[in-house]
Structure formats: structure tokens, C-alpha cells
Amino acid sequence: MTSLHVRQLSESEVSQITTNIDIATNQNLTDSVESIDLAARNLRQAQPADLESQLQVLGAALGAIISAQTQMQWAAVTDGIESAIVLIGTVGENTVVVYPFDVVERRWNLDEPKVFTQYVSDVLDSIRVSQNAAESPESE
Question: Where's the DUF3806 domain (predicted)?
């Protein structure tokens, strides 16, 4: 298993996140996960020339929504070879890492109407389970 290390975001990574969140906000994508699902469906139909930049906007929107609901923070992780922009937080003694840009990259073209709604629900459920386990008397 590869070891991951958290590192500070570079200026260009911060700029990438803030620029894409601004675009997502202007497109009302940060209002709800359903709006991201709808945008992904439109991308599947349109196949725009700037697909990669559109996926970056969806990833930023997904990250912004998860961050708002969990108070997770943007960070970068590296395995020493590659880096990824992530959301990171702690639940009890566990560190939770979410890869919003990678999730969008892998799932945007799935022909499921609520692929991102389900993903966010799964993340929130997982965090709740971890919180409950950390707070239960048996975990002490």
C-alpha cells in the first residue's frame, strides 16, 4: 500500500480551486448536488470541445458542496510521484480523504441520473458511521 502525505496547496492549485468554484457558483452548480448531476448529463449529450475544463468546474462544485456539509478542507496529497487536490478532514481518530476532481473524472459519463447525489450521500453516510463509532462508549 502506498503511503500518502498531505502537503500545502501551491498557489496555482489554490487558483485552480477558487477559479473553478467561482465558475461553478456562477453556473449555480454549488447550489445542489442535483445541479451537478444535471450538468454531467448535459456534458454526456453535448461532448463539448472544452470537456476537461468543464470537468474541473464540476469537480470544484462537488468539492465545495462536500466541504460545506462536512467542514473538510482543501489540501493536496502526494505519494511522492503524483499529487492530487483533495478534501481532507478527521473523524474521531480517522482521517477522511475525498478526491472530488478524480471522482468527477471517473464518473461523469456514467449513465446514472444521480451519480453524484449518490456519491455525496455515500460520503456523508460514511462520515456519520465513523463519527458514531468514535463517539460510542465501546470505542474508548
Answer: 46-116
Residue 61: give its domain's CATH number: 1.20.120.1090
Mean pLDDT by 10 residues, the chain (140 residues): 83 97 98 96 90 96 96 91 91 85 92 92 89 69
Supply the range of the domain harboring residue 110. 5-139
Contacts of 65-70 with CB under 8 Å at 24 or more apart are 65/30, 65/32, 65/33, 65/36, 65/120, 66/98, 66/100, 66/120, 66/123, 68/30, 69/120, 69/124, 70/96, 70/123, 70/124, 70/127
